[in-house]
Amino acid sequence: AQSVTQLDSQVPVFEEAPVELRCNYSSSVSVYLFWYVQYPNQGLQLLLKYLSGSTLVKGINGFEAEFNKSQTSFHLRKPSVHISDTAEYFCAVMGGSGNTGKLIFGQGTTLQVKP
Amino acid sequence: KAGVTQTPRYLIKTRGQQVTLSCSPISGHRSVSWYQQTPGQGLQFLFEYFSETQRNKGNFPGRFSGRQFSNSRSEMNVSTLELGDSALYLCASSFRLQETQYFGPGTRLLVL
Fold first, then answer.
1. How far apart are CA B44 and CA B37, in angstroms?
2. End-to-end CA distance of chain B
3. What percent of chain B is predicted at pLDDT more than 90?
4. Which range among A41-45, A78-82, B19-23 shows the weakest confidence by mean pLDDT?
5. What per-residue confidence (pLDDT) applies to A100?
6. CB–CB contact B98 A101 (8 Å)
7. Angle, vertex CA B37, rays to CA A42 and CA B1, nearest 5
8. pLDDT top residue among A36 and B99
9. Is some CB atom of chain A closer than 8 A to the CB atom of B102?
10. 3-class SS letters over A71-104
């Protein structure tokens, strides 16, 4: 069975500081990996995805993530955060084989950017 | 292109009632998935549809059901509502199965 663990439930950081949100997954098959962001009272917005190819993936709003197969990790990074990045972030995995698009999500990490 | 739309955005029901939620996918997308989001359980997969067929179902009781129409629009139904069904219900669409899913704004259901 697949699972996703987001190692930090809350990450406080000052504006313009770098941030890393950690995500580990477990799966016996190849996977696709995603990061979504959720602002208050909204749905999920896709930040970036890893399907194949380069292990360094760049997304919207200056975010990037690196797929590390040996460590089964997909950590999200941003070199300089803004107040507007305050939101909840979800890491998700989709099995890369089979006939399902089912996403399995981590419990989420709340990023709190302080002025 | 317009994004995924969900109606209604908010609902208040009482225990024992039933509810139907609607989802219109992005134009051209043929796969629709549903997720339940609660503070305690997080985001959980309900079911997914492709070409009007349910392809996969999550671990939810039979009170939760859904369907997909020929225009790819989808509905989910919850019968005999319980307090624990209070949640944000999210719909996501993709062009095909196993492709990137794009989410709607959700329907917030409160069961009293």
1. 6
2. 37
3. 95
4. A41-45
5. 80
6. yes
7. 40
8. A36
9. yes
10. CCEEEEEECCCCHHHCEEEEEEEEECCCCCCCEE
